[in-house]
Batch of 2 targets.
Target 1
Amino acid sequence: MSEDIPMRDKVEQALAIVRPLLQQDGGDVELVDITPEGVVRVRLTGRCKGCPMSQKTLKNSVEKMVLKFVPAVQRVEAVDA
């Protein structure tokens, strides 16, 4: 991904890659915010919301993809609201 693309757009592109995997199981992910410290806040929706495996999905799929494409990101965390 090009350096001239804003961080928010890069994160959205990374989420677009992982989104079909979540949607296969009836879930989804949406970007809520990116802090100045590089923390990406996302909301898991659909069947992912409240799923006992949601934290594993967040770390092993969502965070892994975002960190791969956006090295400036420090971590990804889920928010409820």
Target 2
Amino acid sequence: MVAETDNQRTTPHRAGDAPPRTEGSILRQPRAVWAVAFASVIAFMGIGLVDPILPAISRSLEATQTQTSLLFTSYLLVTGLAMLVTSWVSSRIGAKRTLLLGLALIVVFAAAAGAAGDVESVIGFRAGWGLGNAFFISTALATIVGAASGGSSSAIVLYEASLGLGIATGPLMGGLLGSVSWRGPFFGTAVLMAVGFVTIATLLRSDTIARTAPVPLSAPFTALREPAILVLAFTALFYNIGFFALLAYTPFPLGLDEMGLGFTFFGWGLAVAVTSVFVAPVLTRRWRRTGVLWATLLLLAADLVAAGALISSTAGLITCVVLGGLLLGVLNTVLTESVMEASDLPRPVASSSYSAIRFLGGAAAPPAASALAAAVSPGAPMYAAAGSVVVAALIVLLGRRVLRRVDDGPEPAEVEAQAIALSQ
């Protein structure tokens, strides 16, 4: 979060990044910026939207818990893989067309998921939703910065606000509409994204955002040759197993109705948003990033162990979910911030390589957690997730030598804000 009061501060930038601009009022923005910000809120709602309706989908479509958890797997797997090509696509067709492509895909596949008659179809349509989300989210930040008036820092703060609002309200919207029908959240998303499509098509001019140089298709793959990027990517892979075990598995043992789950994960999303924006920057200004990473990872592992021990206590498990959200917000931001500073690569390229690997962990966790619960015990997935997070902490500790660069000094405020925006 941008905390400084120097309204004329500028920061250095590297190849592939937006040029530095002076700060201005967050509220004095063109309508095009507000249109993209609105669509960003809806896009980020998709992260937790299905949480409150997972048990309802399982009951209505006579699907197993493992099958239902694949709604997360298909979404995250396709989102991660698509991140490898989004820069290549947007650098050739332009930001506006990339945004509209992403929104159109979400509208089509969200509506199709709502109309589906079996769980296999919903899983497939969620994959298409993930593809649209990758195109939209990877382009929205650059678009807001390019179209904003008064400076990029205030525009980034607006994007952060959209991100936090979307993550927090997604589960609440899922619970409200899901209490009517499990199909409601899907149709609701399709309608809101259609509104976003029309507003962006109408208000955002193609010449508002400068075209970037074409990005080679091989760039994200080449980035993984950087030792620091590789260490951080595998840290995130094992960490994301814990993240999505907590997010995608706990709705089942909680045993709450749609509204109960909606409020629980609203608290989780609010915790993620608050610590990612306000707490993570404070911690990294006081301590080394690698120290913040391994210490917070160990705290998350302890929280997951507690969740496993309290798996049959609704109040205890809710507490662990919300406390986990506080830790997840810190980790998301600090990991992404570290990736952005770990090499001389353009930040979009480094971020796309890292995201592709980390989402693989998120994709594998939900069905693995459900299968483990059926085979061993309801608390077993949480213990396994805790073990995975400990592995992530060990990777950071053992890789400190190649991560020296990320500990070099405090992050310029504008770059820090970009890291927050890209971290979810």
